[in-house]
Amino acid sequence: GPLCPQTCFEDGDYGGCSVDSGCVGGCFCPNGQVMDNNGHCIEPHRCPCLYNNIMYPRSTRIIMKKNETCRHECECQHGSFLCDKIETTIC
């Protein structure tokens, strides 16, 4: 398999490895899947999100504070949080 297998947390950069750096023996995810934080092969859209060193399952919604007056409601999608400003706050 590839020397630099893709995981949920590398955003396609393969941890700084070159994708053409050769092959090694071992267990790898099938094409179209990535390794999650538990070592399981999953489709990329099922990846969890990491925020403040806490792992959140996909579809989890949290409130992120930018500062004391600015908060965003965010949902874990495809391994990262997508956020909307909460209308009652001033950013």
Automatic annotation (TrEMBL):
What CDD domains does UniProt report for this protein, alphabetically? Answer: TIL
**TIL domain mapped to chain residues:** 3-47
Which Gene3D superfamilies does the record cross-reference, listed alphabetically? Laminin
Q: Which domain of life is it from?
A: Eukaryota
Descriptive protein name = TIL domain-containing protein
Q: Which taxonomic lineage is given here?
A: Eukaryota, Metazoa, Spiralia, Gnathifera, Rotifera
